[in-house]
User: What shape does this take?
Amino acid sequence: MNTLVTVTCLLAAVTAVRGIDQDTIVAKYMEYLMPDIMPCADELHISEDIATNIQAAKNGADMKQLGCLKACVMKRIDMLKGTELNIEPVYKMIEVVHAGNADDIQLVRGIANECIENAKGETDECSIGNKYTDCYIEKLFS
Assistant: This one.
């Protein structure tokens, strides 16, 4: 999988989001989320290389650890409180990353809503981090 948070959560797409290349969108999500990724990486003792390649479990990172990093970022942007997901911070991020393209914003908001529904019922924050972002990235880039 390509690099991206998340959470961004993060957090976009060549086939799902028309006319925008994947590398450009990934860079925009990373720029938006980096102020929250690095403090979480420090807190969890995760290297910068692993943190900036959050969707790729490599260099010794395991998926549980990456899920915890994603959950930490989600908490920092007020998307995750306990095991409850809040869509508003995601909408804010989508508005920034996809600024000026109303069609993309509408499409990506739909993906975000679907992935929040998909992650409901999870009882572990780290699992929520992985489940939400895996869904988001899969739907955005496939």
